[in-house]
Structure prediction request, 172 residues.
Amino acid sequence: MGIPSDKGGGRKPPAELLRKHCHSLTTLLVFGGQAVDRRAVALSFHRSSRHKDGPFVAIDCRREESRLRSALQAVLNNTAPDPGPDPVRGAWCGTLFLDNVAALSNGTQRLLLWFARRTLGGSVAPEGAVPVRLATGSPEPLGAASPGTFIPELFDEIDKISIGLGVAAGAA
Prediction:
């Protein structure tokens, strides 16, 4: 599936952003549209990146928050996650796509902020940064979230390349 075109005014179309940032590992935020379209955009960026031979791991934060939280805590503490597949380490040298990111609890958002800053595209990526490109998705623009529900620092960290697909009826 190709990358959808953007009909929004004033913003660069996703295909143009893909050409411009395809070799970058900068964090990506895709909002609007339907889940399948957000995933397709993130996958297009993955397939064009230098991590294209690595895994693409997609998580729906509404349904899998506890698994994501466990994996993020395991990376933070350098321990093994709870039993089951580890989506974070499973995305090593690839892309971790977190859709419905606004559904995360405040505690998981704080863990994600810590993680996002340490990925290769993160703002404080130290030597030995986590070898993952972080891509996030949301059916609605995150700025439209109610005040206090989404950590502003996390928004700043994940909103480096932002692609709006338009809000479709029943998007999720």
Summary: Residues 1-10, 168-172 have pLDDT under 50 and may be disordered. The chain has one domain: 26-164. The domain at 26-164 is CATH 3.40.50.300 (Rossmann fold).
